[in-house]
Amino acid sequence: MSKRNFRYFIIGDWLKEDFVIKQSKLLVLIVFLIIVFISNDYACQKKMKQIEVLQDSLNNVKYENLTLSTRLTSASRQSQIESLLESKGLDLAAPQAPAFEIRK
Predict the structure, then answer these.
(1) CA angle, corner 85, sides to 82 and 88, nearest 5?
(2) CA angle at residue 25 from 22 to 18, to 5 degrees?
(3) Can you give the pLDDT of all 104 residues of the chain as single tens digits?
């Protein structure tokens, strides 16, 4: 009867072989390294997904910043300020003389 039949592997008789017993430490090390490799791959994929989410969030904040900066720039133009003062009915006007610096 052949030692390599299906029942030989299913029952686990191959675990009693001298080669398997002598190399058991190596087999345990290989299994451990496989588990470490799989867990490392999972952690890396998780970090990559988190990086993608943060990249999207950063892009959204950049676009929002650009939009707000553009609105502020257009609202702070002298012509916009003068038209806003006129619409509010305030009696403020731009100075006719340029500003000057006082030196000590």
Answers:
(1) 150
(2) 15
(3) 455 778 877 878 778 888 888 888 998 999 999 999 999 999 999 999 999 999 999 999 999 999 999 999 988 888 888 888 888 888 887 778 888 888 87
CB 8 within 8 Å of CB 14? yes
How many residues are recorded in the chain? Answer: 104
Asked whether 80 and 74 are in contact (CB, 8 A), the reply is yes
Residue 85, classified by CB atoms within 10 Å of its CB into exposed (0-12), middle (13-18) or buried (19+), is middle
